[in-house]
Amino acid sequence: MKFIMNTGRTVRQGKHIESKLGKAYGDETGTCYMHPMDMLALGVEANEKVKAFTEVGEVVLMAATDEGLPEGMIFIPYGRHCNAILSPTTHSTGMPDYKDTVVEIVPTDERRKSAAELMEEMGGVPYAEN
Amino acid sequence: MQKIEDMVCTFCGCLCDDVTLTVENNMIIAADNCCTVGNAKFMGKNRLKTPIRKKDGAWEKVSYEEAIDYTVETLLNADRPLMFGWSGTHGEAQCIGIHMNELIGGVIDSTTSVCHGPSILAIQEVGHPGCTLGQVKNRADLIIYWGSNPVEGHPRHMSRYTVYADGYFLENAFKERKVIVVDVRETESAKIADEFVRVKPGGDYAVLSALRAIVRGKGDVVPESVAGVSREQLFRVADLCTSCKFGALFFGLGLTMVKGKYKNVSNAIELVDELNRHTKFTLTPMRGHWNVYGSNEVFTWMTGYPYAVDFCRGVAFYNPGETSAIDILARKECDACLVVASDPGAHFPRACVEHLKDIPTIVIDPFQSLTTPVADLQIPVGVTGIDAEGAAYRMDGIPLKVNKVLHSDYPGDAEILSRIYERMMEVKGQ
Amino acid sequence: MSELLIKNGYVIDPINNIHGEVMDIAVRDGKIVESVGSGAEIIDAHGMLTLPGGIDSHTHICGTKVNFGRYMSPEDMRAGRTTRIGDMHATSGYSVPTTYGNSYRYARMGYTTLLEGAMAPMEARHTHEEFQYTPLQDCMANTLFDGNWQALQAIHDNDIKRLAGIIAWYLTASRGFSVKLTNPGGTEAWGFGHDATCIHKRIEHFNVSPREIITGMIEANEMLNLPHSVHLHCNNLGKPGNYLCTLDTYNSIPDLNDKRQSLYSTHVQYHSYGGTSWHDFCSKAEDIARSVNAKPHIVIDTGQVMFGKTTTMTADGPMEFNLYRLYHNKWSNHDVELETGSGVIPVLYRRKNLVNAIMWAIGLELALLIDSPWQCILATDNPNGAPFVKYPEVMALLMSSTYRDAEFATVDPVTESRVSLPALDREFDWEEIAIVTRGAQARALGLVDHGKGHLAPGADADIAIYPIDVSSTDPSKEYETIINGFATTDYTIKMGHVVSRKGSCSVDHSNRTFWVRPRVSDNYDMGRDPAFIDSFNKYYSIRMANYPVQEEYVKRHICIETETSL
Predict the structure, then answer these.
(1) CB contact under 8 A, B316 and C68
(2) What are the tens digits of pLDDT across the range B45-97?
(3) Is residue B263 within 8 Å of residue B373, measured between CB atoms?
(4) What ipTM, to 2 d.p.?
(5) How many helices (H) and strands (E) does chain C have?
(6) C93, C125, C337 member nearest B391 (Cβ)
(7) Distance CA A19, CA B198 (A)
(8) Residue B340 in contact with residue B84, Cβ under 8 Å?
(9) Nearest to B160 among C74, C92, C541 (CB)
(10) CATH class entry, domain B117-285
(11) pTM value > 0.90
């Protein structure tokens, strides 16, 4: 199913902003909030996983319910997960489409990666001591 | 144990300056008056202890001297260096960054370009009818949050400056004030609004145009529904706007990060211009990082432009969309990057982060972030507001000095940057 | 110890009655001295006009609204760009240059001291930060009190001593220099979108009239023995027929100080308008000049308009909104809680626009009709009337009626029926130019005793050496020579250092901030006043403890402490 991906700040994301390699931050930024009707249509429940695709990549997220969202829109808190599938196109404004990207969502059984794993996937090397 | 009052919180653009910190044995053990996020910031742990450098795919500790040498060499050897970040540090450090960038002929950009950059483009097109936040607190009887969710992004904004704040000209501020929230989703902020206007995604521009038409007395052109908003509600909102004594519109990334970008903001500004022919109305962007507005102020008085400044031809050149960080990284144009007090690793699209990994990237930041894994060097510094201090500008332009409360051996951003700059001047024989 | 000897300059120093003498000036460690040793560095100023460093007593160069002018105007930034070269940093901007741009371009013209015309005390830290990056001039700031709630309350209560205590606290906290009133009462009314349109009519809520604010402030200003007088931007700026309000204001001004004026009335061109609308708009410079000539206790600056693009910026928020409704250009506004307002709008003054041409003429008429140059200072209210780089052209216009006639021939021909300029044949001499560009400023600001605006031993060694040979130049005819000569000094010397040599500037770290601290007794120290503190923390959006500007934002500074009767 096609959705508009909206990303933004949340208190939980902000709280863990200085330990982004930690579990709490990754749990929050790896969440895909959806309208219950959309979840029903997709056949997923809260705490089940979905995979989001765009032309630039894919990422596995944990589904969660948000009745405040309109149908057809998902919300992902700022962080590595949403940016893994965001195009760098800015239409010559300097600003990517952080709140206005079309994504394809399907249910999945694949494992959700942590933020650190997503970095490693790109060839990054986290520093172990902290 | 010591209680220190009136400290400034360095999390968001609210720059709350009424925090009480309890300090014991050179540690903060409590932060009062803060929101959850500010509290987490003051109580933060896990600081990076020494500079670290990646060699052959593994991190090793290095001295500050070695870290500075590496930084100087890398930046001076680069053909097209990018210096990005700046919103999470104090003004003095930003000034040195500008001088450094001028010296090496690089591009300097702040997180503005991925936040309210489009708002600035709009202001450069149509101006900005604004005011300080205390003006809103004391006078406003109508508050609008448009594409902004202060409950999550600026948790104390409503209690300090708007909905719940006591005001001089309002007998019972909370009762007398009307609150309108406009958003595509029903956020926590929307739940407390007197009027929640739910706009279909991508429909903000049309709704703003409809309101402008009504305010100008051309309501007859407005159809039954505009981007999911009923004609009736549009008229009700327009009436609230024209009949208030002082209206304040706050807007967020819900306008800047969707299609239309700066044009949405221009339209909001022109609505406010129009409303000023009827009553008093102001508009304020909800700036995110605590000192992102300071970066715009400093960049402007030093270079003439608020962000995305390219010195490669000696003069300051500004063209967001070309000279902004995302575009330069996406074009794989820069060949070295200095990241100061921000985390593009977390917030930039994948292609940009991949390029950061492919070029020498140096991070100056107190904490390991998601940029660390793709960087080659990180230099830890003090946290402004905890063990470093300097100037900051609130979202409305109010300048504050952020004091420190703890002593530490960490250098501040300004100190590290000036050491780098001085070394560069030496190498260049200036 | 560093010594410098400027030899054989043609010196005019009006404050010390040196009316044009070939003489030497000796400098030691940044000050003028009687003589120096034989090892002193020599500057040969033979055949060159040598004056005290220029002073701008009303300019907008640093702070929130100035920076907003830059921020909103990339088109202006593009219009004046230079690269980093030698000691000079890159600059941008034409009408609102970057801080380095301001500093280098003023230095090039021989200006060494600048007064920022309007600083909201709540945003003072910003002004002081920009002063730090204006490296070649000493700076100071007018501090805005026009809509200050605490002050309005004290005026309402007719408690002038308390008012003086309030001013003392704010000046000290903001490290300000002087009391500025911009559209008194009007900026507070603008908080709800209104304005103050008559000096006798009380504004809502605070129930005080602009006249009461002005006279109360003058009385308090003198109680505090401040170096400068109240600095007033009158009500009704830019409105046809406003000259009556200006005259009415002048008639209300008491004469309370025998050393200097009791009122500095700024950019008076904008306040000398006749007519009832833009259709019958005309000059009333003669009426204003007559009033000033009869009142030695008033000093004005002209606020000269010059043709071309510029940016208007003022604390007068309602005026900028009116301008926006005329121009429909981009409009910025920034009200400052409990204190004042501000606005910014880019404008273009056109020769062929009748109103603009009349404005241009009025500025010149004021300068030519006010008898004493000590009472009429040259300024463009930079950048409102024109960017300060136009000063040399203004000087040439004052020195040459031929030049004025040539310029007048290019403006809208109807102008002639609305102004008296073509009938004025006065031409300024060199000394009068020296007075209206430095001497009068130093006196009006009360800075003569602090070493500004003159060249007697003990004064600051701020000196401008212009490549103008007075003996062989007829300013009336050779106005191009005047323009070029005043545009770029051969040497600009600041505190004994050459900071600009033929337009090329060098690094100098001697710039200082002048500010004032009136000494008041504990009874009038608002920092100890429970009502003041309570009201402060209740209505401002920052804590009182975080308000005062800290020492580090005025790194090098001169604090002028005054004795008061409080």
Answers:
(1) no
(2) 889 999 999 999 999 999 999 999 999 999 999 999 999 999 999 999 999 99
(3) no
(4) 0.97
(5) 18, 24
(6) C125
(7) 35
(8) yes
(9) C541
(10) alpha beta
(11) yes
